[in-house]
């Protein structure tokens, strides 16, 4: 499940898809490596829904998530599309996870939601929990669905939780840095990679202001995302 490095070198606990109970991926398009960009995310899901279909998916996702918390049903009494939008605006799902079991539930919840959007799998390549554990999403070999036109050129790493105001725990940040350096060591990530936040390539609050302020101090942080605007303009996404 992780032949690219020695477990002793990981310095964090790594959980494969099998361990957190992923369903098989329907989308396994190979990604061209080494990848030039790493995109950092938080979880703030489901996002606002703008169509009935999107809202249906959001409701199913919330029910799945709430069921996974042992609540027996979706927790909200009544969700009109407008109410749903408001709920999303002030809720964060999944919330930060502090135990392996909570993080497994968060991973399953995200995979269910992303599958309901017909993305064929959880969108991110890897997720990191508050306890510093790293959870395998799509892994190093396939294209993710996490950053629009940057998908084909980046890995998406999600720090589980809402980091608009709260600051991620140090161990979570250290695992994220270590994960990126392992990607460089195994040839998946270019040594000259650029680190960016989701909000630099799409109109979103993700990865949250508090987290964004932190990653903007890290090595390789870049404001150079002009390439993606060119890609959009020329419709030249490969
Ligand atoms: Zn994001």
UniProtKB/TrEMBL annotation:
GO BP, sorted A to Z: innate immune response; peptidoglycan catabolic process
Keyword Signal: yes
All residue ranges annotated as the Peptidoglycan recognition protein family domain in the record: 16-202
Pfam families tied to this protein: Amidase_2
SMART domains from the UniProt entry: Ami_2, PGRP
InterPro entries: Amidase/PGRP_sf, Amidase_domain, Peptidoglycan_recognition, PGRP, PGRP_domain_met/bac
Cysteine-cysteine disulfides: 97-103
Keyword Methyltransferase found: no
Keywords: Disulfide bond, Immunity, Innate immunity, Signal
GO molecular function, one term: peptidoglycan binding
Database matches in PANTHER family: PEPTIDOGLYCAN RECOGNITION PROTEIN, PEPTIDOGLYCAN-RECOGNITION PROTEIN LB
Protein name: Peptidoglycan recognition protein
Organism of provenance: Papilio machaon (Old World swallowtail butterfly)
């Amino acid at each position: 499940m992780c032949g690219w490095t020695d477990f002793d070198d990981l310095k964090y606990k790594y959980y494969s898809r099998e361990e957190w109970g992923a369903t098989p991926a329907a989308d396994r398009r190979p990604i061209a490596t080494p990848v030039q960009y790493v995109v950092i995310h938080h979880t703030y899901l489901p996002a606002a829904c703008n169509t009935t279909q999107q809202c249906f998916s959001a409701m199913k996702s919330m029910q799945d998530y709430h069921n996974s918390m042992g609540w027996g049903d979706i927790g909200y009494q009544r969700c009109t599309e407008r109410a749903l939008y408001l709920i999303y605006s002030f809720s964060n799902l999944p919330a930060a996870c502090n135990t392996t079991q909570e993080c497994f539930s968060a991973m399953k919840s995200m995979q269910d939601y992303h599958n309901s959007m017909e993305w064929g799998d959880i969108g991110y390549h890897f997720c990191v929990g508050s306890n510093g554990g790293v959870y395998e999403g799509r892994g190093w070999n396939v294209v993710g669905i996490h950053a629009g036109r940057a998908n084909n050129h980046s890995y998406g790493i999600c720090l589980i939780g809402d980091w608009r105001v709260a600051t991620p725990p140090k161990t979570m940040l250290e695992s994220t840095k270590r994960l990126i350096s392992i990607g460089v060591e195994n040839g998946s990530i270019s040594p000259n990679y650029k680190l960016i936040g989701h909000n630099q390539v799409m109109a979103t609050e993700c990865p949250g202001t508090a987290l964004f302020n932190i990653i903007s101090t890290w090595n390789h942080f870049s404001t150079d995302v002009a390439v993606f605007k060119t890609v959009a303009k020329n419709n030249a996404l490969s």
